[in-house]
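Example record used in the benchmark description.
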Amino acid sequence: MDISVADVEHVARLARLELSEAEKSLFAGQMGAILGYVEKLKGLNTEGILPTSHAVPMENAFREDVACPSIGVEKALANAPDRADSFYRVPKVIE
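Model output (structure tokens):
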């Protein structure tokens, strides 16, 4: 599939990118090659192949949600750059 420089300029404008003339020509060729490869993949027989979201089987990698004792206020605030009593003090960001 041929991608014109105008197509590249349109995509660059949408992405708010400034491209040089050399980059526009380079990217037009690269995008054309990518779309040509996708066209080639469309020719594959995928009947009977189930869609997948991952190339390998995935399982939940999270640990069990178990209640544990807290580390305590003093440990939690030990490295705080600024604190007030048992709270972190942060700069005001709302007027």
